[in-house]
Amino acid sequence: MKATRRRILASAALAVAALATATGCSGSDSEQSGPVTITVAGMPTSQQPKQLDAFKRKVTDFGAANPDIKVVGDEAVFDVRTFQAQLAGGKLPTVFYVPFTEMQGLIARKQIADITSALPADSAVSRINPSILKVAQDAGGHIYGVPIQAYSMGLLYNRDLFRKAGLDPDKPPTTWDEVRTAAKAIQRATGVQGFASMTKDNTGGWVLTTMSYAHGSTIQSADGTKATVDNDATRSALQFYRSLRWDDNTFGANFLLGYNDAMKAFAGGKVGMFVQGADAYATVVSNMGMKPDDFGLAPLPQAGGGLGTLGGGTVAIINPRASAGEVKAAIKWLEFDNFRKYSSEQDAVTDAKAKVADKQPVGAPALPLFDQATTDRYLGWVEDYVNVPRQNYAAFFATAQTVALVPEPPTKAQETYGTLDTVVQAVLTRKDADINALLADAQRKVQAIIDAG
Question: What structural domains and CATH numbers belong to the chain?
Fold first, then answer.
């Protein structure tokens, strides 16, 4: 699970200080003469020698290609407890990485700078998947950060079980009613559990949040100050669970499934469908031995009024106190560090060869970081090395550029998910569970979690 934990309730002093730094930054300084030095977060520690060596090689390669820029690594990583103070005090490295959940708040509070004008005309950033780039944009389309990694939730299904149940594996369910029908068909024809859900270690709440989005509501307000757990969309999601569990009996008998439990059950052909991250291919196929042709991935079904699918990831931001020269240098580094294989055929092929040598997938299904044209060009470059049956995921790819990504709850997501775990478990283990009462109780508990700071 790629969830994040944080709360942003900066004091007025911090907000004013951050506003001052943001409004007086990018582009206001005159161009520097001579070499520019930037610091970049996320440098591996000495306890990660292989990763550290790889980072140092990348810095050396970048320096050879850009002798006017000096890159200094920094081990700093995002920590909700210190981030706001570091930002307000100008203590962040030039390049820093934050989760998706931070971006809209940072933009709204004017704590980070608009970098749109600093992007080169041919910047790879302009080719990022629009649904992902939106996370780092304001309402006017101005760009405040560079997404470097993203994932979305989807519906995983076993194509072999679909075939055995008389279902078309190339036409996965697009509604929750169709999911329910498919679960019954799979169980009736094969005896295999039709549907499953993770339920413990915060994963039950993670998936219920995803289901709530698909049914039409978030579980916290956009600013993370109010719990909105007790809503009709979450009620509908839980009613869906109840129907499969108690009316259809397609939900199995184990209702304490963690992340690895569910992945192993799916990889072993013991579950027909479940909601999971769309980037699960490497885990269940490469690491757990599922046959590539059996792995199915579909867009997350949407109920009427569905908001989209839960998405997460990482955005690179630039210190708002950076000079214009430092901003430009930072953008060069980010493109070199993250996007070379999408801009250079040689780099794409080198990367693909290395993955094949390591018996890792090339072309695995996942939310594409770049737009369709850039993605297609990259796939053309590595066509000879693609080792996954991409044609099996046509339904997922058809919406990958347009799917609406809804960020995770902005405040204390993990604690919120943990609270919702117990709600999911109650609905699946007690036929008489009162969904309204469970949600009312969860609403109070999540609000208390938020208020505790």
Answer: 12-151+311-357 (3.40.190.10), 153-308+406-451 (3.40.190.10)
